[in-house]
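Sample entry (117 residues):
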Amino acid sequence: LSAYQAAYALDTKLNQNPEFLFGLGIVYHHYGVDNHAIRAYQQVLYVDSQFLRRSDVHLRLGLIYKKLGDYSSSLKHFQRALGDSTSTCSLTRSELSYLICFVYEQQGHLTEAENLY
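Predicted structure, serialized as tokens:
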């Protein structure tokens, strides 16, 4: 984390570099600094809406929101990751579907979860 912070202190243009922001988001997420991770991931999508790993960005946002109990935001990002077949994602479609089912269950939408299983 300190390496990312030091690099950013030296070059403030890095806030426009999606690869840097994605890596920063991963580090923040790893250390449980969720609000900063969310901001970094959202900035990735703002800076480059066609970022090669945008499905992974949505996946990671979904995981953070799920952890925070914001199931509607979590569901939105999981669905965006699942619906994007043109970018790279570290989970399979089945794994993403499972996460969506979990969120549906947490929301009490059992029929939707059952239909997706």
